[in-house]
């Protein structure tokens, strides 16, 4: 069944005030209670998973119940996201409060060549504003294009760009087992496939086209570039997840013996959640007030890393290391100088060894990993304006 025509012209997940006034969202669905006869392992697993999730302060018991459900599959993640959109709109975060008026939004779902439903989101300048170019987004590990990126995309769109984003398979509102990456190559192939269609859309066809990758999305972006070196007019990498000369931060890199064990176990039980997940929240957001808001990103994957996912991430960064000299596209790298999740020294190494004739590196003093979401307001605006200035100079 082709879903593109079903969802292309309306948003099935957002309230109507964010879309056309004549459109209506799907009703919020509460999580159905399991029948009493389900007393086996599956029910116990679901109940245990719900019990492990922290209570979200400031929202109702009903919303907490919705958020506590098993998010392994896209249908549940879509219900949860739909329920929390009104909450997101009330957050006192610069990315939500500064949302420019007039930006047009749209979202839809299409099946990719593997048969998976892929979630798309689009932000366009207000009517009458000439579109300068296209920016296509690759989100980071566990993340989605529907929370903090909403404000980032609106800022870029208000500056004259068409912004497009997808949720990777297994993340956000796209199909696939939550947090599971079977193949990093397939992740990159899906990005190429989906954005090839975007480039042919009449509103942006023929315009300069850039790809923006954040954290793990930076590694995806580099893989996309290696597979399709002439497919983009430039790359923007924000705190990219890469590994060069063992410089990746010690806080997130497993020891070599552990990595070998993970590789073996990933062949036996690839989807198992056995890789310890350190609490990185203190390392992600420098602004404590903004760190507290991350809990409202209710469909992000924040459980233990699945075995095959961990191995794919490690292998991908090692492969990127071997090809760094093949980076030839116009390149903008942005990184917090105090980032302990992805090492800024890696970005400096990438900048120095990339063969790109047009390359720029910006390191932000005291900046943590989430320089577009977790910094003080003035720093977030500085990074956003640096992106716009770089784009404007190339369009």
UniProtKB/TrEMBL annotation:
Stretches the record annotates as Disordered: 1-34
Serine aminopeptidase S33 domain mapped to chain residues: 131-376
SUPFAM superfamilies in the record: alpha/beta-Hydrolases (SSF53474)
InterPro entries: AB_hydrolase_1, AB_hydrolase_fold, Hydrolase_4, MAG_DAG_Lipase
Name of the featured protein: Serine aminopeptidase S33 domain-containing protein
């Amino acid at each position: 069944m082709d879903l593109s025509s079903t969802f292309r012209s309306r948003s099935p997940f957002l309230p109507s005030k964010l879309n056309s006034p004549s459109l209506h969202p799907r009703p919020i669905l509460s999580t159905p209670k399991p029948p009493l006869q389900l007393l086996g392992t599956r029910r116990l697993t679901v109940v245990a998973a719900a019990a492990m999730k922290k209570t979200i302060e400031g929202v109702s018991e009903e919303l907490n119940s919705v958020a506590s459900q098993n998010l392994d599959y896209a249908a549940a993640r879509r219900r949860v996201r739909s329920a929390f959109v009104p909450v997101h709109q009330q957050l006192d975060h610069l990315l939500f409060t500064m949302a420019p008026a007039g930006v047009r939004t749209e979202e839809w779902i299409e099946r990719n060549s593997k048969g998976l439903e892929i979630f798309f989101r689009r932000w366009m300048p207000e009517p009458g504003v000439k579109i300068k170019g296209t920016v296509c987004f690759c989100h980071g590990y566990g993340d989605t294009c529907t929370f903090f990126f909403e404000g980032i995309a609106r800022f870029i769109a208000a500056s004259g760009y068409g912004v497009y984003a997808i949720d990777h398979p297994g993340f956000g509102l796209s199909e696939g087992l939550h947090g599971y990456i079977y193949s990093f190559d397939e992740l990159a192939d899906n990005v190429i496939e989906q954005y090839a269609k975007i480039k042919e859309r009449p509103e942006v066809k023929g315009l300069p086209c850039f790809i923006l990758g954040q954290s793990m999305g930076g590694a995806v972006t580099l893989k996309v570039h290696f597979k399709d070196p002439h497919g983009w007019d430039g790359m923007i990498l924000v705190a990219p997840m890469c590994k060069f000369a063992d410089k990746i931060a010690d806080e997130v890199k497993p020891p070599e013996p552990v990595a070998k064990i993970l590789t073996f176990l990933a062949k036996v039980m690839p989807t198992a959640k056995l890789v310890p997940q350190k609490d990185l929240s203190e390392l992600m957001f420098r602004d404590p007030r903004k760190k507290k808001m991350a809990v409202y990103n209710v469909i992000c994957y924040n459980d233990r890393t699945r075995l095959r996912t961990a191995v794919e991430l490690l292998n991908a960064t090692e492969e990127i290391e071997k090809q760094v000299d093949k980076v030839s596209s116009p390149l903008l790298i942005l990184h917090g100088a105090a980032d302990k999740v992805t090492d800024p020294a890696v970005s400096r190494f990438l900048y120095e060894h990339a063969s790109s004739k047009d390359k720029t590196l910006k390191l932000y003093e005291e900046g943590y990993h989430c320089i577009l979401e977790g910094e003080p307001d003035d720093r977030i605006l500085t990074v956003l304006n640096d992106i716009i200035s770089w784009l404007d100079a190339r369009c």
